[in-house]
């Protein structure tokens, strides 16, 4: 899966690879210290935050709960 910002895809792939190594070699052996991937996660997180701003994505709108409400029945654009 690609990142929200196409310019963040490479950082996402690097973080995913680091996470997979950490999970298999550290976490599953009882070590939950996440510092191994922290630097790349910080870069990726910053990139995603910038992409969200550039794309003008309203995070409040994403988190809005509409399931089992009248809002759920509306078609996109109604309202």
TrEMBL record:
Residues 45-72 form a coiled coil. GO terms for cellular component: cytosol; mitochondrial intermembrane space; nucleus. It catalyses: a 1,2-diacyl-sn-glycero-3-phosphate(in) = a 1,2-diacyl-sn-glycero-3-phosphate(out). GO terms for biological process: phospholipid translocation. The keyword Nucleus does not apply. Pfam families: UPF0203. GO terms for molecular function: phosphatidic acid transfer activity. It comes from the Eukaryota. Keywords: Coiled coil, Disulfide bond. Belongs to the TRIAP1/MDM35 family. This is TP53-regulated inhibitor of apoptosis 1. It comes from Frankliniella fusca.
